[in-house]
Write a structure and sequence with these properties.
8% strand, Hypothetical protein af1432, six-stranded parallel beta sheet, 2 domains, alpha/beta, Rossmann fold
Length: 412
Amino acid sequence: MKIGICGGTYDPLHNGHEALIRSVLAEGLVDRVIVIPAGQPPHKRQSRISMSRYRYEMAACTFSDEPRIMISDIEIKKDSPSYTLDTAAQLQERFPDDRLVLIYGSDVLVDIRSWHQPLELLARWPLLIADRGGLQAAESRLIAADLSRDTGAQIDFFPAPQIDLSSTTIRNLAADSQPLANYVPACVDAFIRRHALYRWKDELDRIDVSLWHELAVIEHVLWDMLTPKRLLHSLDVLHYALHLSFCHQVSARKVAFAALLHDCAKCLPLREQEGLAREQGDPQLQSGALAHGPAGAMLARRKFGIEDPDILRAIVCHTTGCAEMTSLDQIIFVADKAEPSRTYFDLDEIRVAAERDLDHATYLTLNGVQSFLDRTAIQMHPYTQTAVSNIRKRMKHNADTQTVIDNQTMDD
C-alpha cells in the first residue's frame, strides 16, 4: 500500500488544504493519506499557534466522510519539537510493509533545505508536490530539478486546484467577525464560530510567547487526561477567561493557569476524584460532582507544579462559588458557565455584563445556577448561598457608594 503523509499547522485548515489532500487521492497516487496536525513546530517557536485540540478537530471534521484519510495525533503527543524526519520514521516503523510519500504544496521546495536533516529525509522518502499550473508551476519544477540533482530526491508532481489562501488572513477575518464560507470547509466554519476560536485574537496576541508555550505544554499533558469534549471546554474557558482578564486588568498568567486546569481532574474515576478532594481538606466538597474542583487543585499542584494559592482557590470553587470571591475567582466561575460553546440558560446577558461588571455577571450566573437547581430539585450548596449573599451585599454597597458620589457631584 502507498500512504501519503500530509502534515501542517492547520490553523485553521482551509479549502486549499482540503483540495490538495483530496486531489492526491482522486489522482490515484496514494491509497491512503495520514493528515498530521503539528504539535510543536520547530519553525514556529516564536508564535502563538492555536492549541492542538482545536486544530485536530478541524482536520477531523473536514475529512470525516473519507475513510481513506486518517487524522493522526502522532506529533501532538510528542514531548519534543516535531521534525518531519522523526515523524516519517515512526510511521514507517508502524507500517513497515507500506511505501510512504510526503505530500506538500510547491512552496515547500524553497524551504526544505533548511529543515532538520533534509538529506536523510529526501533520501528515504519521495515527495509528491501539488502542481497548481501557471508560471509558479514552471518555477517549482526548476527548483525541484535542482533539488533532485543536489540531493538525489525523488520528486513528482500531481494536479491540484489553484487555491491561494492564507491562514493568517483567515484568522484576521474571523477576528473581525467576517464570513469564512469562501475560505474554509463548512464544518470548520461552524467549529470556529461555535468556539469563538479567533474572536479574541488581538488580545491573545498580546500574551507573552513563553506563557503561551507553557500553556501548550499543559495541554499536551491534558491530551490523554481529558476527553476531547472536556479538553475543548477547558480551552474555551481559557480563551474567554483571558479575554475577561484584559477587560478587568487581572493577571493573565493566573487566569490562564486556573482556566486551563479548572477541570483537570474531571475525567478521573470518581473514587480518585474523591480521594484527592479529601486530601485537599475541604469537607464540603469531597463527594460526587463537586469533588473535581478540590481534586483539580491537588492535581494542579502535584502534576503541574502550581503553588499559587490564588490559582488553586479559583480551581477549588469554580463550580460552587465561595465567600468573598476575588476577580480571579469570578472570572473562572463565569467563564466556566458562559464560555462560547455553552448553550444553556440565558448566557447573552451574562456575557454582556461580564465585559464591564464582574459582580453583576457573577450574580447573574449564580441566579442561573439557582434556577437550574430549582428545576432539578437539587439543594443549593452552602458555598453558593454564601456567594449569592456576598455578591448582593457588595453590589448594594457599590450602588450606595455611587449614589453618594453622584449626590456630591450634583451639589458641586
